[in-house]
Amino acid sequence: MTTRVLLWSPGFLGEIGGIEALARPMVQALHGNGFEFRVMATNTVLPEERTLSWNGVTVHSLPIYDALARKDLVAYAALRRRVREIEQDFDPHVVHVNHHHPGLVVHCDTMAGRRAAVVYTAHGWGFLTSEGSSHESIIGRLIRGADWLVGCAQSSVDAVCSLIPEMRDRSSLIRNAMPPPALQPAPLPWDPPLLLCIGRLVEQKGFDTAIDAMAMVDASVQLRIAGYGPDAERLAARIEQQRLGDRVHMLGGVAPEAVPALMNEATAVLMPSRGWEGLPMVAVEAALMARPLVASELPGLDEAFVPGQTGVAFPPGDAIALAQAIGYLLGRREEAEAMGQRARQRAMREFGWDAYIEAYGSLYERLARRESRVRSRESLSSR
Amino acid sequence: MSDLENRYLPDENEVTAKVIDGEAIIINLLTGVYYSMDGTGARVWEGIERGRSIDEISAAIASGYGIDPARVQADVHTLFRQLLDERMIRAVDAAAPVDAAAPVDAAPAAFSGSYQPPVLNVYRDMAEVLALDPPTPGVFDSLLKDPNA
After folding, report:
1. Does A101 contact B16 at a Cβ distance shorter than 8 Å?
2. Partner-chain contact B129 A101, CB within 8 Å
3. Cα-atom radius of gyration of chain B, to the nearest Å?
4. Listed range (A297-311, B73-87, B115-129, B133-147) with the worst mean pLDDT
5. Tally of domains in chain A
6. For residue A83, what are the domain limits?
């Protein structure tokens, strides 16, 4: 039996972010293992619905975010109708909701009569307030409507289950992983030391803390900030305000395949996040490229690296502490290099790609078998 | 006049709404809260849009399903309380003219399926979730040109 999986992945084609960077190779690998996928990409800047083929996988680009943001109910209703048609046509065994996003209101609204098993993957925990997990929220309804909850980190599983206890006996941990880059790690550069921040330019990522810290570290140190996002102008203004234009450089968006080479040019990777993190892919990728990490002490991030062993931790939002952490690392060259090597060994062990693909494949198959049994019983009883 | 005879209309200062494909979709313009109702709930909303009273809407629905109007009336009354609490509807002058051509008052064709009480689905976190992760413009274009890239 070929297992059919309908994957809701908001920025599957359009966005460069950790969740998307993970979803694309996951779909590619499982498609190669015989799973049949349809992908629903809802955070698209394309104005109209499109169907695309991506590496043999059908991807539906559905501008649901746009319709909801514009409060265009006619456009939204048309997209909802289209979602129903796609689900009916594809008849999935499993619907996999990868992270929360506004387009999932369609998923909630079309739950009645759905025959597929539903998997929800929680990438983080900060969005789960007691109100946000109630029956009167998109997130609360979609998690409660799921047959299985997956956390990308133990902190995600724990956070969801503490607010929605009924998920405890139908949840599991599948830690985020990444295929090992083909590029081998290069030695850490020291002349000059170069730091790297990479991610969406949003307040949650705390890149402004990194800029403030740069004003307090040795003047030879350089910082690159790579990524897109609504915070770009504010960060550029901060760089100018701190008179750091010759030491802090904003690179704009970087394609996922270019990230390993960019990391190879960095002495250390900074993750000054001040909000929630799931199990950030930047931390996993930095480890695979043998870069030490300087990161905020936050749940999720604390599963991605081991302070003192593979990097240095500091309190979120504390630019002085970040500057001290950078100074500590850059002043201990051998220790920094050893941290990078230990990070790589740990990542190969803890964030193995084959185990990740196997875990999702097994989960899909188990739920699909259960779903098939239900369908067979229904078919028999209707005769 | 009893509560059941009162007339209400969608509060257009608060909400925008459409009934499409038998489903009502409603967004509070001020708070961003999103609501949906299908089946009976959507029929009730259509009745409200036409300025019908609880009594009139309940009678039309009961007639459509061929069931006891009292059973429907209790459910519809509960829904009206919710809609008022959510400030989605406002009371109007009972003497105000109503849309006489509204089909909900006419003896409707029998509704398909069995009667289900109306349910108001509420999504209070819509505005918050919209703010969390907006699409990133500019990236899609290159991937669209060469999706295999």
Report:
1. no
2. yes
3. 19
4. B133-147
5. 2
6. 4-177+352-381
**Whole-Å CA distances, A369 to A283, A329, A362, A374, A375:** 35, 51, 11, 9, 10
Q: Tell me, what's the pLDDT at B101?
A: 47
Res A381: pLDDT? 66
Return residues 194-223 of A near B (CB < 8 Å): 200
Give the N- to C-terminal CA distance of chain B in Å, as an integer: 69
Contact by Cβ (8 Å): A105, A139 = no
B104 CB-near residues (< 8 Å, 6+ apart): B43, B46, B47, B50, B52, B56, B57, B60
Q: Which tops the pLDDT comparison, A142 or A379?
A: A142
pLDDT at A95: 95
- Regarding whether A342 and A200 lie in a shared domain, the answer is yes
φ, ψ (nearest 5 deg) of residue A120: -120, 130
Q: Which residue has the tokens 């961003």?
A: B32
Report the amino acid identity of residue B79.
L
Task: Verify whether the Cβ–Cβ distance A139 to B125 is below 8 Å.
Answer: yes
What's the token pair of residue B129? Answer: 């979730």
Query: What is the value of pTM for the model shown?
Result: 0.86
* Minimum Cα–Cα distance from B26: chain A residue: A73
The question of ipTM being above 0.85 is answered as no
B-interface mutation test, from A44, A61, A105, A134, most B Cβ less than 10 A away: A105
* A159 and A204 co-located in one domain: no
Touching check for A132 and chain B: CB below 8 Å? yes
* E-only strand ranges, B21-133: 23-28, 34-38, 89-92, 121-123
Alpha-carbon gap, residue A120 to A101, rounded angstroms: 12
For residues A153 and A257, state if they share a domain: no
Q: Which residues contact A113 (CB under 8 A, 6 or more apart)?
A: none
B123 with A52: Cβ contact below 8 A: no
> What does the radius of gyration of chain A's CA atoms come to, in whole angstroms?
22
A341 half-sphere exposure, CB direction, 13 A CA radius = 7
CB B40 within 8 Å of CB B61? yes
Q: How confident is the model at residue B149 (pLDDT cuts 50, 70, 90)?
A: very low
Cβ B121 vs Cβ B31: under 8 Å:
no
Higher pLDDT, B91 or A194: A194
CB-CB under 8 Å, A53 with B147 = yes
pLDDT in tens, A1-18: 899 999 998 878 766 677
- For position A160, which CATH number holds? 3.40.50.2000
Q: Classify A299 as helix, strand or coil.
A: coil
Claim to verify: residue A338 and residue A364 sit in the same structural domain: no
Cα separation, B19 vs B25, in Å, equals 6
